[in-house]
Amino acid sequence: MAASNTRLAFFSSLLLLFLINSCQSLSSHNIYLRRQASILVSVKQSLESYDPSLDSWNVSNYVLLCSWTGIQCDGMNRSVVALDVSNSNISGTLSPAITELRSLVSLSIQGNGFSDEFPREIHKLIRLQFLNISNNLFSGELAWEFSQLKELQVLDVYNNNLNGTLPSGVTHLAKLKYLDFGGNYFHGTIPPSYGSMQQLKYLSLKGNDLRGLIPGELGNLTSLEQLYLGYYNDFDGGIPPEFGKLTNLVHIDLANCSLSGPIPPELGGLSKLDTLFLQTNELTGPIPPELGNLSSIKSLDLSNNALTGDIPVEFSGLRRLILLNLFLNKLHGEIPYFIAELPELQVLKLWHNNFTGAIPAKLGENGRLIELDLSSNKLTGLVPKSLCSGRKLQILILRINFLFGPLPDDLGHCDTLWRVRLGQNYLTGSIPSGFLYLPELSLMELQNNYLSGQILMLSGNRFTGEIPSQIGNPQLCGSYLNPCNYSSTSPLQFHDQNSSRSQVPWKIQATFCSWTLSMLFGICCFGNHQNPKDTKKFEIRGSSQHSRSWNSDAKKYWNASRKTTS
User: Fold this and answer.
1) Distance CA 381, CA 16 (A)
2) How many Cα atoms occupy the beta-carbon half-sphere of 390 within 13 Å?
3) For residues 138 and 193, what is the distance between their CA atoms, to the nearest angstrom?
4) Which value, to the nearest 10 degrees, does the dihedral of the CA atoms of residues 550, 555, 558, 561 take?
5) 203-229 pLDDT, tens per residue?
């Protein structure tokens, strides 16, 4: 009996001890949740405005902290490890209290209206791996203690009003894989020490006010997959030949940043490259034939430079090429026949060069052609019959050449066409049946040719007859048709003073007019090609590329790192 009582007392003591510990643990858990809830509410109170979804941030609701909007806790539902209030219509300043959430691993506040300085105490978040503050209005310099952020893998501050020089402290971030300082007002030069971040896979410094030479040391970033240095930076010198060592590069964009000199042939060794953008610079010399070794290239834009010579025959090996832009250069020679045999080609723009000879007869036979602009050259011969064989062609511009012969009948069945400019050639014959009735057509220019037929649609030609009332594209308008005010339903009708509709009563005679009409019909006015140098900086800063809640590339690199370490 005594032994039984002893055992009962023992188990009772154990149960009491367990209950006491459980209560203490639960109390500690609740205290910790309440403390984090208080921090978040303090952050919210410092804001000027925010999305109503943040109304769930209420201390009285602290027990459900882990279900608050934008909050993610650890596996024990005890500590806040992720805060994502991206695109939440927030304005105001970000309280330094945010740095009291010491368990944070991920912080994303992109796509809001945060202003003033970002809290310099960010170094207190020593566990932070992902930081995205892009697309806000933060200002000031990034005078952070980067050396304390040893776990940081993604840093995205794109499209803010940050200034000062590029911070050199980021070179101490040994785990950093994604760095975007683009779309700000950083000035000075690119520190050569940036070439020491050999773990980087993504680097963007585009859209700033950087000067000086691009350091060749960036060629040491051999893990780099994407590199963006262009747009409104104003560099001296040219493209470092050391970039040929970046053999893992998939995308390189050095557009519109005052680069001069030749294109380094070393770039031809970048076998993984699918995008090369060098447009709107001051590059000179011939196109290196080594670029023909870019077997993975899909988009190649060398436009708006001062390149000379012809298109290298080695480009016949670019079997994955989708876009080829070489316009606004000083290139000459014939357009190579193999251009028509590139199986994936969709966009070909070679305008404003000195190309001669005929357009390759098989151009368009791949069935993928969407946009073709060969205007302002010295091309002769016929317009190829196969341009719209895939029924995908949308833009056809061949103006200001020496093309002759009839227009292909197949163009009258190209229902996808919406912009056509064929003026100032020597085209003859009649307009293909259906060509003027295409359902998507919004601009047609045929002026100053030798076209003939019964329907007069443009001046400066030799048409006869009467404007037919059945021309049925309601969006077409122009001098002899409806004014371009979008108010009437038919281009051959007009409103009189009583708003009643009448048919156009006159005829236009078939004589060659000494005066020219650049466009008889078209939606409002389309000017000549715009010079890409007229692009404004806000177009870069407002890029939709960074408008998603988590930048897809940044998230990709971060998730890949998490899988590796788990």
Assistant:
1) 99
2) 18
3) 25
4) 160
5) 999 999 999 999 999 999 999 999 999
Backbone angles phi, psi at 391, to 5 degrees: 55, 40
- Are residues 276 and 300 in contact, defined by beta-carbon separation less than 8 angstroms? yes
Give the pLDDT confidence score for residue 530 in this predicted structure: 41
Distance CA 350, CA 356 (A): 12
**Residue 541: what residue type?**
R
Report residue 41: phi and psi, to 5°: -65, -40
Is residue 547 over pLDDT 50?
A: no
Structure token digits, residue 77: 């539902």
Closest Cα partner for 517 from 424, 429, 432, 441? Answer: 424
The pair of three-digit structure tokens given for residue 157, joined into one six-digit string: 């501050």
Q: Which residue in 127, 157, 79, 125 sits closest to 541, CA to CA?
A: 157
Q: Which residues have CB under 8 Å from 397's CB, separation 6+?
A: 351, 372, 373, 374, 375, 419, 420, 421, 422
Residues 117 and 142: beta-carbon distance below 8 Å: no
- Spatial neighbors of 11 by CB under 8 A, at least 6 apart, are none
**pLDDT tens per residue, range 435-476:** 999 999 999 999 999 998 765 445 566 656 555 544 444 444
CB 395 within 8 A of CB 371: yes
The whole-angstrom separation of Cα 431 and Cα 438 is: 13
Q: What beta strand segments (E) does 46-175 contain?
A: 47-49, 71-73, 80-84, 91-92, 106-108, 113-116, 130-132, 137-140, 154-156, 161-165
Give CA–CA dist 531/543, Å, rounded.
Answer: 19
Q: How far is CA 512 from the centre of its chain?
A: 46
Q: Residue 405: CA atoms inside 13 Å, Cβ hemisphere, count?
A: 13
Question: Would you state the torsion angle of the CA atoms of residues 149, 155, 160, 163, taken in this order, to the nearest 10 degrees?
Answer: 50
pTM for the full predicted model: 0.81
Strand order in 354-358's β-sheet? 260-261, 282-286, 306-309, 330-334, 354-358, 378-381, 402-405, 426-429, 450-453, 462-463
Q: What is the SS3 string spanning 403-454? A: EEECCCHHHHHCCCCCEEECCCCEEEECCCCCHHHCCCCCEEECCCCEEEEC
Please write down the long-range contacts of 493-501, taking CB distance under 8 Å and 24 or more positions apart.
Answer: none
- Neighbouring residues of 28: CB distance < 8 A, sequence distance ≥ 6: none
Residues 151, 173 contacting (CB under 8 angstroms):
no
Paired sense of beta strands 178-180 and 202-204, if any: parallel
Contacts 24+ apart (CB under 8 A), 366-369: 366/340, 366/341, 366/342, 366/390, 367/392, 368/343, 368/344, 368/392, 369/345, 369/393
